[in-house]
Structure prediction request, 213 residues.
Amino acid sequence: MHQAADAFLRQLIWRDFAYHQLIHFPEILHSPLRSQFQAFPWVGTSAQLEKWKEGRTGYPLVDAGMRQLRETGFIHNRVRMVVASFLVKHLLIPWTAGSDWFRETLVDFDEANNAMGWQWVTGSGIDAAPYFRIFNPIMQSEKFDPNGFFIRRWVPELGELPAKYTHRPWAAPADVLEEAGIRIGEDYPFPMIDHALARNRALAAYDTAKGKA
Prediction:
């Protein structure tokens, strides 16, 4: 009971911290609080942004979360962090694009929390996540949805896959895919970008923004 109460209090404090930031730094809604991020080398495209919005990235956890958001106006906090990290760090699309989409779709939208959350994931805000913290959507999926229940609910085309392949369907053997009635690239997309490649590209971009490159 005490543990649950402590967790609730932490969320209230985090919310108030967001309001504090908005009052003292109203620019947090549209501009990075850390000046070096003004020159961040964003290279993502509008087509990639649309695939992210629609849940067609090829990463099942990301797609499940984004589809849940479109249909219900809600997305779990863990998944919010994963999809946000994917947009900013895998695709190198400005965090403001994600912030705007959350504003348009979330039924529990809160201006201060939203802005602080996106700046936290990007690494451009107060007490932000380390820039090298790049969520691996496969590992996050395996850890928090090991049986693939969440994925099957929101990405039904993967519903017949064995649990071990719901997190990375492109790695399933041909006979497994055939039995599940899935053609990767047709029924479900290949990953938009390889995770390792995306991580290295993001770290290079952050080094550029910080003047290390």
